[in-house]
Amino acid sequence: MAELEIKGLNKYYRLGNKTKFHALTDINLSFEKGELVSIVGESGSGKSTFMNLIGGLDSDFEGEIKVNGENIKNLTDKELDEYRKKKIGFVFQSFNLIPHLSILDNVTIALTLSNVKESEKVKKATEILKRLGLEQQIKKKPTQLSGGQKQRVAIARALINDPEIILADEPTGALDSETTSQILEILKEIADEGKLVIMVTHSEKVASISSRVVEVSDGKIIKDEYKSDYNKITKEIKEDNKKEEDDAKIKHKKKTNLSFISAVKLSFHNMWASKVKNFLIAFGVAISLVSLILMLSFGSGLTDYISGLADSYTNPLYVSISKVAKNPLKDNTGFNDPEELDNLIADINKQLEENDFEFRADESNITYGFNKMTFTSAQFTFKADEDNKYDENGENVVTNFIYFVYSTPPYYDETKMIAGSMSGQNEIMFSKAVVRMLGYDTYDDVVGKVKVTINIPSLNINTENMISEELNLTGNPTISGIIDVSVMFENFPVIYVDYDYLTSLIKFAGKEADFAPSSIYIKTDSEKTTNFINNYLSSLEGYSGSVEEQMAGMFNEMISTFSTALAVIAGISLIVATIMILVVLYMSVTERTREIGVLKSIGARRKDIKRIFSTESFLIGVLSGIVGIAFSLICGLILIIVLKSILGFAPISFRWWYFFVALGISIVISVLAGLFPAAKAAKLDPVESLRHE
């Protein structure tokens, strides 16, 4: 059985005007192992077309091309890839070496596509390169070799998979006469060892050393001549019959395809060859990732800061419950309906019981409080000095508005005091804003020395209209201390008064019918119980936690909105980065079109080409993510130092999962951006790719 048998081969090219060009006409040839055949003819005669058909680069033909009795026209695309990988070795006139790979990697790339072990690849390639006199050139790049050395590398690549047929397209066309002789001698030796070598050539010298010359003209065979004086070295080719039968089958059950690990190594080589370009891409994506990470960290830092401040003014063993009002100045915000309060406590206890909590809220652990946003008139009376005006009693009086009136929460203690002591009967505490309002520089000038007359016009919480009568704290309470209010209120004048003292004043004024607590405090047995009750209250309408918690929630919501807006801006930049990656990878496909053709000529499947380019985009994503994370940490540390020096604190808080999210986003957008270029590369026609300049 002939090694290669061609029957009735016809090839047509479809032209733009819907006509057909008959490139090959009724070709009938057969070739045996050990032949060194020259296909000669003028340019455009069909020689290269003939070689492309034999090599499986072009499967659009009529007739039969049988290799070991099997017609390659009947092969699927996948089987054609395997055919080129196992049966055919290409040697090109322009060498078609991949410039960024070493000589060793250029030769082993065919084995890489077959998923051969690294040690086995290196051993086999080294042996072939040594045989061809290139053992000293293994680590060099193609640009460092002469033309003859490059062609020998191309021959080594063609031989690495031990193919049965070597197809050489003008193998000496770019070489001088001395080098031509060396290359022809190598090809002759290959044929003498039992392989079928077919050369397409214009050279008479090449044809003269061949065992057979087939001349083509206008797509037809016009001469098929055997050289009787061909000096073929006769060798006994010992073959195992079963092995020959198995090798004759083009379909291979064993998986010998490009693995992910091999694709990563190959892609890394490709990326390293254009490291500046790839780093710039990664840097562009990293800038977007830095903005995303910093925006998230800034948002979480502010949230942590605000929440921390709120927590510092609450107690994990206390549940604070207040009524919610749309208009705190006018609306009913108190627990003036005893039945409503009883029902709320009953609902809380029911939830505790159903969820196996032993704690129950009752009068033993419930206390009451009052908080009101109001413009309360306050007169501060203190000893006059030479710089102040005198009233009729020889005392100085300052009148101003207080923005908030609070009863002192039960969990406040001396640790909250800036100066002085906790208030009791006939005493009031103020925020430090009052000290500034009175024009004093130190707290000691105020504490215990200034008496206050306070008129509260809005204590009536049972009506939407503020009453005209004012509640006068006629006891002229003394300022017992300056209390550390939360940062939300530190710039506002705030009253803190003992709840029992406040209720006694209200009773004294005869206003107890108009007064009800606006807050209740439940002292729990554990932080777990507190959290459970707070979570339950958050599901109810009309109730909220402490004022600090309410304000923290409001600020956190604002911060969340702000952070989301910034994240959207960062997201837009990521979209731009995705487009940038797509464009660069698309350009890379164009730049590497011939390389893709070479890979396909040595058996790379569409899936392999797609995997190589997809892996490159994946590696770009990984690199971008790492660079982005590194820059984020550097920028974040710089911002922390600067903000601490300016503000005294730095509202930046990194979460470990931000970095994983950023890395994931970087990989996802890079891989998505690489899908189209990878698909385009996989679909390239191998013949057209090899012709690409």
How do you describe this structure in short?
The chain is 45% helix and 19% strand. The chain is an alpha/beta fold. Mean pLDDT is 81; it is low at 233-254, 383-392 and 458-474.
Descriptive account of the structure:
The chain is 45% helix and 19% strand. It is α/β, with parallel strands linked by helices and 693 residues long. The protein has three domains: 4-87 and 163-256, Rossmann fold; 269-306 and 555-691, no CATH class; 316-545, no CATH class. It is rod-shaped. It starts with a strand and ends with a helix.
Number of domains: 3
User: What's the number of extended β-strand segments?
Assistant: 22
Largest sheet: 8 strands, mixed
Report low-confidence residues grouped into runs of 5 or more.
233-254, 383-392, 458-474
Number of helices: 19
The amount of beta strand, in percent, is 15-25%
Q: In which range does the helix fraction lie?
A: 40-55%
**What is the residue-mean pLDDT, rounded to a whole number?**
81
How far is the N terminus from the C terminus? 40 Å
Class based on secondary structure composition and strand pairing: alpha/beta
Widest sheet, order of strands: 15-19-16-20-14-13-17-18
**Rg for CA atoms:** 44 Å
Spatial shape:
rod-shaped
